[in-house]
Amino acid sequence: MRLSRNELKTLMKNKMMAAGLKEEHAEVTAEILTWSHERGYASHGAVRVEYYSERIFKGGITTEPNFTWKETGPCSGILDGDNGIGYVVAQEGMKKAIEMAKKNGVAVVGMANMSHSGSIGYYSEMAAKEDLVAITFCQSDPMAVPYGGTEPYYGTNPISFAAPTADERTVVFDMATTVQAWGKILDKRSKGASIPADWAVDEKGAPVTDPHLVNALVPIAGAKGYGLMMMVDIFSGVLLGVPFGKHVSSMYHDLSQGRCLGQMHIVIDPERFVGLEKFKQSMSQVCDELGEMPAAEGYGKVYYPGERAVMRRD
């Protein structure tokens, strides 16, 4: 059975509303989930709805949160999400960052005490659509072994950046600092499929191909990925005064409790540097030159980050 975009979004929205989430928050969450799903990010799409609905129903997400905004300087601020649904908190935080960056050139906005916010590329793309450059970091619960370690300490701790071009293209990069995101493990479990041996390890630290035997994920590029994990946790955890490292609450254990996660948006106005139009023209040139590059054997083309996702959507 194939659903239209609107049908999928409506089903997800109604499911979360039935669990207790108010309509405007369910609308935002369902829209971003659909954004992920139609771009081929299945691990951050419809597969998440059952989990969110259960956490909402059990009280682990505040359905009527009281957001608190504190401007800590001309270019900085913190949005306390009161354990609200992470999608809405992250979106509101990016709106604040966009407004601040347009006014003062740069914005560093933290979001504290929020739940999971899904594909963070959505939020960096928000800024790019406003002719700004953005990077966003988000911590997650411990599920990856540090380089040289045997027990999980950091999460998948994703990083995303986005930038506009002089045409309709938008560069959007979104990655976990593990070889794969935990959602990919869940996706493979739901499909009864195996995973590559370099994605994760079992309780003894040995590589596994059965997603049901996964005890921890592994960082990308060994020590380099481990360093990036730490960086993300410093920006979105330590710097915001929320739980960090192994102290971050589990996504799946007690669904009746809030998660107190942190996220950080950094937004820059290109006009304050090289100038907006020159920046956008250069970005279009970058995308053109990458696309015109001879592809290696087995590859049809060199794509800019986010290009294939848009192709899947269309």
Comma- or semicolon-separated keywords:
two-stranded antiparallel ribbon; single chain; about 325 residues; alpha+beta
Helix amount, in percent?
25-40%
Number of helices: 9
Largest sheet: 7 strands, mixed
Low-confidence stretches: none
Subunit organisation of the chains: single chain
Rg for CA atoms: 19 Å
End-to-end distance: 19 Å
Q: What percentage of amino acids are in beta strands?
A: 15-25%
Pairing-aware structural class of the strands and helices? alpha+beta
Which sequence of strands runs across the widest sheet? 1-2-3-9-4-5-6
Q: What is the ordering of alpha helices and beta strands?
A: HHHEEHEHEEEHEEHEHH
- Averaged pLDDT: 95
DSSP E strands, number: 9
Write up what this structure looks like:
By secondary structure, the protein is of the alpha+beta class. Helices cover 37% and strands 17% of the residues. It has 9 helices and 9 strands. It has helices at residues 5-19, 23-38, 49-57, 86-104, 121-128, 182-191, 223-236, 276-292, 307-313, and strands at residues 68-73, 76-84, 106-114, 133-138, 159-164, 170-175, 200-201, 216-217, 261-268. The strands form 2 sheets. It has a 7-stranded mixed beta sheet, sandwiched between helices. It has a two-stranded antiparallel sheet with strand order 7-8. Helix 4 runs parallel beside helix 5 (121-128). The longest helix is centred in the N-terminal third of the chain and has 19 residues, at 86-104. The mean pLDDT is 95.
